[in-house]
């Protein structure tokens, strides 16, 4: 039981997490919403929680959702509220429940929310007990139609829960909207719209005060006004502040101010909101692409899904921080949230790291897409999914996404859908010729729905453009769908860029989802009118599996553990401003020998048969590279001589050290080495931190490497590694990133993949010392110590 008392809860703080000490049942019970229900034998846990990731991989589940189970689950929480909070408004906020959630408080039904990615709130105030009488909140989650998605969605209350406390005169949830309509180097106009609600039966007189603070918290400028709202009414209030010498937000300089908004009544602050403020201007030009703060830049983007391998959909914040830092290091400056609204804290991170974001609402509209059960395009697909709820809920879900996210400076466009026009899945059109299916819905209906969704977005945010990712532009061009959009995304259709730019001279075009190879980037680099690309994907993700035993998709720059794959370095060579060079080995092809695909043809190791001719692949952003084998140069090659984007040498293999030396103007600017590894002899642990907070949320990433006697990584080692933890911490997941591994994700052992494992360690609420020990048969064991403060 969690007792909410005033000593724990500063009444001046509006919002507090409500994640701890819940009860969970992975089953259905029609009486579980009742106050007197006995949940003593239920499991105790903290949120966020994803029960699907705790299940066993089974071929009977759907390949599209990663061969993991769905089902029905219940959550309950008992809590006490002291009398001192009487008279306040108490609201519960769920950031995401997958899916079909229903919520009760003290047996009072609060409502249902089908879409698993929406954030929503319920007012608890009329139904609460105070002082010594307990309150019981109950949540039912129904994910029994588990083959309902084209990727792994997770199950349960997988995002944060908050309790929000206000007066009955208060800022409406997501009721502040900050824009920067006029910006110059000397001054920025900050417009602030605030929606205030009065739930008293009498008129309310109050003051609204806005303070602009810099990144250190120093107040720069303020404004205020005295306002009145009649009884049981709400009203919008607008203010403008002019900020001198603004520090402009950009990927290179993600400077964040904040707007602190207070509602003051009778000299007391009765509500307070802090809103991030990134001062920036942007626009898309039909002929020259994307401009940020007057500067023409290309979006070097990735698409991402929301899971983190062994952690499922309940991803701790530190995990996203690590992943975003790695993407930033590769030169990524843009992220497409595929294909649903993300966790709010992920957008906060994008603001602070300087990513340009496409926030996306839906993967399907009123007709369902195929969700493959047996494997990609195999057998009978499932047609479960959001389509069954679209008509009733789409405008509500879209509205709530825009209201929740519209103050993030990172977001530069809204997407109303992904591949809605996938040919024959579900729509069709005669322009498809021999692929036209008369039994499929007619594509022309997409235009009317697109217009309706765009109008919803514009109602709540007229400041940003609206886009969608088109899978069949040829078909969509026969409808009003593209014309309804401000910016039109093309998925894997680079061949149409020049033709459509001429044919539709007023259409802004960009790559909303793209292949990972060199030609796809050249289509951006060589066409001024293309604003950028979003490759599929930044990170590997669960689900969308090609068929058993493969359980997850592998197109990422990072694998499920967040380790860098060969593709990472290739994209870094295209996107990063920092000098880099990287080596790998690939097969010698007779057909298209210059086309080397770093996403599936390159291994970053040096291993072979003595004297055999092997191909060494090299990606770099340096003008030339010298390749040395055991200290001897085997030739300097120039990047400009390899239009496919990869330098390569065909040389006799010899055990030892292979070294690439990147050069610019004759000077060495970067190097990379591969060394022949011997037999595995030892384990090595490395943690990204040696100090954690005792808050039940802080996480350490502990990397396990299998090394030979000379401390070289043994790339092909797959030894099973056993893990033991002591002290105030727990292992919440072990990830190897092997797409064919079906080992239990909650076990304390796992086989390595490419010589590596990642162990996630989370703290309890007690200080002390965590000792993590790893062992493997025939290998020297290793341990690491982490302090918890």
UniProtKB/TrEMBL annotation:
Organism: Metabacillus rhizosphaerae
PROSITE patterns recorded: GLYCOSYL_HYDROL_F2_2 (PS00608)
Family: Belongs to the glycosyl hydrolase 2 family.
GO molecular function: hydrolase activity
Residue span(s) of domain Glycoside hydrolase family 2 immunoglobulin-like beta-sandwich: 177-280
Pfam families named in the record: DUF4982 (PF16355), Glyco_hydro2_C5 (PF18565), Glyco_hydro_2 (PF00703), Glyco_hydro_2_C (PF02836), Glyco_hydro_2_N (PF02837)
This protein's record includes keyword Hydrolase: yes
Ranges for domain DUF4982: 611-668
Residues of the Glycosyl hydrolases family 2 sugar binding domain: 71-163
Coiled-coil regions, chain positions: none
SUPFAM superfamilies reported in the protein's UniProt record: (Trans)glycosidases, beta-Galactosidase/glucuronidase domain, Galactose-binding domain-like
All copies of domain Glycoside hydrolase family, residue ranges: 683-782
Oxidoreductase is among the record's keywords: no
Glycoside hydrolase family 2 catalytic domain: residues covered: 287-504
Xref: Gene3D superfamilies: Galactose-binding domain-like, Glycosidases, Immunoglobulins
Signal peptide: none
Annotated protein name in UniProt: Glycoside hydrolase family 2 TIM barrel-domain containing protein
Keywords attached to this entry: Glycosidase, Hydrolase
